[in-house]
Amino acid sequence: MALGCGCVGQAVLSRGAHGGPMTVSVGFAMAVTIAVYVSGGVSGGHINPAVSLAMCVTGRLKWTKLPIYILAQLLGAFVGAAAVFGIYYDAFMEYSNGNLEVTGPNATAHIFATYPAPYLSLINGFADQVMSTAVLLLAIFAIFDTRNNNVPKGLEPIAVGLLIIALTCSLGMNSGCAMNPARDLGPRLFTAIAGWGMEVFTAGNNWWWVPIVAPMLGGVLGATIYIVFIEIHHSDTQPEEENDVYDKYELTNTE
């Protein structure tokens, strides 16, 4: 979150001089890649409650671990947002003359959390987040499925990063393509107490709940689609030795 929101902050606070949509897309994706490399061998590198829930629903993660995963993800996102605010504090103050605004030409709250485009309805935004997160989880299950055309061991996080670039480049216009409840709620909570106020929860026709609920549903949907239409149809004669990838990444083995 520090690197991802940092990309957005650099682009916004420089008024486009030091970044734009493409740097945000690539930067956020590479931030996720690094995060998965750092934490993948210990926790699976979910960094996303929608991923963790999908893993529980499909039997790849114990349900007793889910609250701990989500709490850690929220805490990490909150601290990451705080780090960006601290590093760019002077830039924030200069950008809007010391005012921390949620909407308007000098708005900066969207550096941390997602907000809908002016034309976007809640229903359309909900569908947007369900679809994008469903595609995310469907593709993640494929990337870590060693009985499919699996990614070479150790390169899975890079494949996830490329996936996120594709998603943000194609489905990011409506609301920023959150696809991650912790990525949105953690920083939103930080902005609420750091000076932006409770408007962060009322802006966009009370948008705040959409990037929390919709990705959770979309993640389960995408994982289920992959299992029903792809995974259960694999031949049972695949080489068993390829399954050693499961030992490292808890995305597929967290028992």
TrEMBL record:
Keyword Aminoacyl-tRNA synthetase on entry: no
Top-level taxon: Eukaryota
Membrane topology: Multi-pass membrane protein
Segments traversing the membrane: 29-47, 68-89, 122-143, 155-173, 207-229
Keyword Membrane carried by entry: yes
PROSITE patterns named in the record: MIP (PS00221)
MF GO annotations: glycerol channel activity; urea transmembrane transporter activity; water channel activity
Annotated Gene Ontology cellular component terms: basolateral plasma membrane
Catalytic reaction(s) noted: H2O(in) = H2O(out); glycerol(in) = glycerol(out); urea(in) = urea(out)
Subcellular location as annotated: Membrane
Location, primary (coarse class): membrane
Keywords: Membrane, Transmembrane, Transmembrane helix, Transport
InterPro entries xref list: Aquaporin-like, MIP, MIP/Aquaporin, MIP_CS
Pfam families hit by this protein: MIP
Record-stated family: Belongs to the MIP/aquaporin (TC 1.A.8) family.
UniProt cross-references to NCBIfam families, sorted A to Z: MIP (TIGR00861)
Protein name: Aquaporin 9
Provenance organism: Buteo japonicus
